[in-house]
């Protein structure tokens, strides 16, 4: 048998970060379920692993969101337009079952729809999702009964997407599995989950982020391509990834990512492009042709102007504005004192696209939730932003109740709705500002305070910089150097405990 001296020492794996020990808001909130985790708690010794807990909480919160839609399920979607607004339980899903031809057996993109909407105005993979749900919906009974079933089938499929999102976020930062609870418990996530079909693209994007964190560049690209086939916004993640790979010299991995994304997107879209081009292009034409809509600052400008801008002018200005934002994010990436984390930039580019867009629908918050958690897993900041989004969620439905109800006192007037828009825009910009601050002052980044570099960065994690600009052109600070200088931003007791531990480990 080998001697004790010849036996390799077991590498000590770092303990997962416990939010109730490092986050004051999480610790205070944990009092509802018994208080913060004790120092003698046995971690990983039971069936209740962090990922399983997060998945079950996500399913539970999603179910509560479904219950919140109960007034509409019973009657609000069918009898009186204002009821679904006064109860804040509106959903596109039951209305589009008949409105987009699923009740009549029409094939998306190939069969024309009656009325002004000539073809389905959704990307192909979302259209497939909608069609599968229609196949699973019983075709018997009244149209109201079928629409109820259609919403319920879609809700079940979207619930699976919600669980996937929470689990992927938990497994993206290996040392921070409990961050997935931010996704699972996000109130705006539960409230908006069944308004539309956005969770499909969000789930594929979250899975792509997890694959990238594990160094699987091709799998990341394939999943991101599928996500882009379900919604446009995921493609914007390739922009900051390009700049990060430029700074780190990881061109081979970026090539795999963009190649996988292109192939996956083409596999889904090419058959429809070839045989039903008019139907396939409807989504892109509709995106250009639709006017200024709910939730955007453009709507505030339009409703307060005697001569509002034409749609083409808004398209041009919005495009220029988002390009400027993207250029600023690229400059920030190349000049930051330390290479930003991928999740930080992913959040910033998607937030920039949403804030400058001519539409900011309430369900767009779903795009940001998992990216926000990965970018800034701080309970206080996250909950501030969520409070702003919940306020807007209530504001838009009260505004629609005001504009559709015969009794104006039931709703929110235009000026009040403008304040609601301002609140959720300011909330998003606040979170963006905090993330930018973390990039410029990496010692404030809660993910890096324990010595990590970029846990969701995959091949970028700990990589050397090969191209930087400005002050960043000096020798980069790497994770080991950063950890040596890092001062915990927690309590003084934890700082003293860390010093004592180091002294013990350094003693004979």
UniProtKB/TrEMBL annotation:
Residues 10-21 have a biased composition (Basic and acidic residues). One of its GO terms (cellular component) is plasma membrane. The chain crosses the membrane at residues 47-67, 149-169, 181-212, 218-245, 257-277, 314-333, 345-362, 382-402. It is a multi-pass membrane protein. Residues 1-21 are annotated as: Disordered. GO terms for molecular function: hexosyltransferase activity. Belongs to the glycosyltransferase 87 family. It is found in: Cell membrane. InterPro entries: GT87, UCP010361. This is DUF2029 domain-containing protein. It holds the Pfam family GT87. Its main location: membrane. Keywords: Cell membrane, Membrane, Transferase, Transmembrane, Transmembrane helix. The keyword Membrane applies. It comes from Streptomyces griseoruber.
């Amino acid at each position: 048998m080998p001697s004790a001296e010849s036996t390799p020492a077991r590498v000590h794996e770092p303990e997962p970060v416990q939010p109730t020990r490092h986050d004051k808001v999480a610790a205070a909130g944990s009092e509802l379920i018994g208080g913060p985790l004790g120092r003698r708690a046995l971690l990983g010794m039971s069936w209740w692993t962090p990922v399983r807990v997060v998945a079950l909480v996500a399913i539970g919160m999603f179910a509560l969101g479904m219950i919140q839609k109960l007034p509409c399920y019973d009657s609000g979607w069918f009898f009186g337009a204002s009821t679904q607004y006064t109860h804040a339980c509106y959903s596109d899903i039951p209305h589009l079952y008949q409105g987009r031809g699923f009740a009549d057996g029409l094939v998306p993109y190939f069969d024309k729809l009656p009325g002004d909407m000539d073809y389905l105005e959704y990307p192909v993979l979302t259209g497939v999702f909608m069609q599968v749900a229609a196949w699973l919906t019983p075709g018997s009974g009244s149209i109201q009964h079928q629409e109820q079933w259609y919403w319920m089938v879609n809700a079940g499929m979207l619930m699976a997407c919600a669980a996937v999102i929470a689990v992927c976020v938990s497994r993206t930062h290996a040392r921070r599995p409990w961050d997935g609870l931010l996704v699972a418990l996000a109130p705006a996530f539960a409230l908006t989950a069944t308004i539309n079909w956005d969770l499909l693209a969000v789930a594929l994007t979250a899975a792509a982020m997890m694959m990238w964190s594990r160094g699987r560049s091709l799998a990341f690209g394939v999943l991101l391509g599928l996500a882009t086939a379900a919604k446009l916004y995921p493609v914007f993640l390739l922009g900051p990834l390009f700049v990060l790979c430029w700074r780190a010299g990881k061109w081979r991995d970026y090539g795999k990512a963009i190649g996988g994304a292109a192939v996956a997107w083409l596999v889904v879209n090419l058959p429809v492009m070839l045989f039903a081009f008019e139907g396939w292009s409807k989504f892109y034409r509709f995106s250009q042709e639709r006017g200024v809509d709910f939730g955007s600052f453009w709507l505030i400008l339009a409703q307060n102007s005697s001569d509002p801008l034409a749609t083409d002018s808004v398209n041009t200005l919005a495009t220029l504005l988002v390009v400027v934002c993207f250029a600023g994010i690229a400059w920030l990436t190349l000049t930051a004192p330390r290479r930003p984390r991928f999740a930080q930039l992913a959040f910033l580019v998607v937030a920039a696209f949403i804030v400058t867009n001519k539409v900011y629908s309430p369900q767009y918050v779903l795009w940001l939730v998992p990216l926000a958690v990965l970018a800034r897993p701080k309970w206080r900041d996250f909950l501030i932003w969520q409070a702003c989004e919940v306020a807007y969620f209530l504001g838009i439905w009260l505004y629609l109740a005001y504009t559709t109800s015969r009794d104006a006192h039931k709703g929110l007037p235009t000026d009040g709705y403008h304040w609601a828009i301002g609140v959720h825009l300011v909330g998003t910009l606040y979170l963006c500002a905090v993330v930018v601050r973390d990039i410029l002052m990496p010692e404030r980044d809660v993910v890096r305070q324990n010595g990590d570099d970029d846990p969701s960065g995959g091949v970028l994690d700990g990589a050397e910089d090969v191209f930087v600009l400005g002050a960043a052109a000096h020798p980069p600070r790497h994770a080991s150097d950063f950890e040596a200088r890092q001062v915990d931003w927690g309590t003084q007791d934890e700082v003293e405990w860390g010093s004592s531990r180091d002294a013990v480990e350094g003693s004979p």
